[in-house]
Each structure stands twice: as C-alpha cells, then as structure tokens.
C-alpha cells in the first residue's frame, strides 16, 4: 500500500477533524502518500481529491465540522456513480481508503469494496452513537454535553415559571443522546425510538409529580414513534387538561452538531484514525475501526450496518427511578 485517501460523509460530527488529522499523520508516519477527498462520495465521483501533508491538518484538532466537508450522495447509490468514483481513484493510484461517517457511509463503502476491491476501513463519525462495533461514536460525547448545557439553562427558566418543558434532541433512529442528556440533566421522562412511549403513564406521572414538583423536563428523541416534541406536547397537554399549567417546547436541532469536540471525542477520533491506517497496513479491510470495552476493535461493515446497538440496559430504569 502506497497511497490512501480519506473522506468524511453523512452528518458531520465534532471530532471528525481530529480523526482526519490522525489519519493523515499516521499515514505520513508510515511513509504513505495521503489524499483528502472533499464532499464525501460526491467528491470521489467528481475527482475533488487533493494531496494532504502534515501541515494540512495543523490547528484543526479543536475544531467542529469537517475540513473535508460532507455530503449525502445520491449518485454514489448508482452503479454508474461508483464506476466514476473508481476511475478517479484508479487514475491517482489510490490503494486504500478511510471513510469517516455513519451507517450510510459504511453501506456505500461496503458495496464499493465488494465491487472494486480497494481496501477500505471506516471510522465511526456520527453524533447519534448508533453504530454497532464501537462503545461510542465520534461526536456523541460533544453532542450530549451541548444538549446538557441547554437543558441546564432551560431548567432555570422552567423552574422560575413552574412550566413543563419538552426538549427535542437529535436521533432519528437512536435514543442515545436523549437518554444520556436526560440522565445528566435530571429529566423526568425520556422518550426514545427504541421503546414504546406510554403517553397514559406519562400523563399520570406528570399529574402525580405536580404534588412534589412545580416544573418538569421531558426529553424527546426526534425519532420517537409518538411524533416530534410539538406533537407530543399537544397530546399530553390535552390529556392533562389543566389551564393553570404552561407547556413549552424547545427543539435543540443542529446546535448539537457543532462546537469544539470534547476531550473524549478528540481522543476517540485520534485512536480510530490511527487504527484505521494501521489496520489497512496490516491487511484489514471492509470493516470499521472502533473502540470496544476500551480497546481498539475491527468490526465488519456487514455487522456495523446489520446489527443494532441497544441502549444500555439500566439507562431507562435509571431515569424512571431518579425522577420520582
Ligand atoms: O445522523 C446525524 C443526524 O444529526 C441525526 O441525528 C439527524 O436526524 C440528522 O443527522 C439530521 O440530518 P440533516 O443535517 O441532513 O438534517
């Protein structure tokens, strides 16, 4: 292996830059040429590919976003698109790829590897923490801390006005952000896509809680099957039917995707980036470099995509017990 390429794809996540930096510097350390592909798979198709040097990744470890930009490519889903991408890589002599992203990124990488055989290793970059084969994904810790800071602030005003707040956090298919910022933020309830939300129980508990608490925080993952925070708030409000009680909704949205990565995210990103390059050099391919039980581990793309990562067993129980 002589020349590798690195790209970021899908939703950006804080720590992606730290991962790019680790890939570039590990590659140079081992005597490889390294290329950066801008705009993910779209850039691979259009040939938006440039040589990177050690100084190309200076002063980025602390920055959110991704210097290589990101995109969700429709064209790469087609055979013709992937053929164009292959020709671009072939013309530069790229013989190894590091793909930083989530399950959509790995789905594309797996198909591409199976069609053209360029060894590819993924790094788990998504705030959602919904990738099997790694304890945490790059960006998750930062996103949770951003949401937590917002919850703390909302709690102040909720308490001052005796209000019930529904706070919507990201997570289309995963409740990890909701659960962790819910525990950290002392939420009364957390609603997640992994478990059925029992609105009757929520209404009953909120009525009971009113005897001991004047305000409440309910964290809703955007993918909850009962709907978004606005819809859920309306449903609960109608059932509580108390004109003296005020209900408010805050949707945190993309604020959760930005900001300086936490120390945990920078370290995780650096470890995964180094492991991806060294994995390629050691003959690994068609897999993701993650961290499992504290140690670097390679998990096949098939498992990363096909297997679901359940919420930690005690997390939802913890919220129920600690909210009384
Ligand atoms: O996958 C990361 C994520 O932030 C999800 O939590 C969210 O549902 C989605 O991306 C939002 O995507 P976009 O930025 O394209 O609206």
Automatic annotation (TrEMBL):
Active site: 128
InterPro entries: ATP_PFK, ATP_PFK_prok-type, PFKA_ATP_prok, Phosphofructokinase_CS, Phosphofructokinase_dom, PKF_sf
Stretches assigned to the Phosphofructokinase domain: 3-279
One of the record's GO molecular function terms: identical protein binding
SUPFAM superfamilies cross-referenced by the UniProt entry: Phosphofructokinase
Family membership noted in the UniProt record: Belongs to the phosphofructokinase type A (PFKA) family. ATP-dependent PFK group I subfamily. Prokaryotic clade 'B1' sub-subfamily.
Entry protein name: ATP-dependent 6-phosphofructokinase
Species whose genome carries this gene: Belliella buryatensis
Gene: pfkA
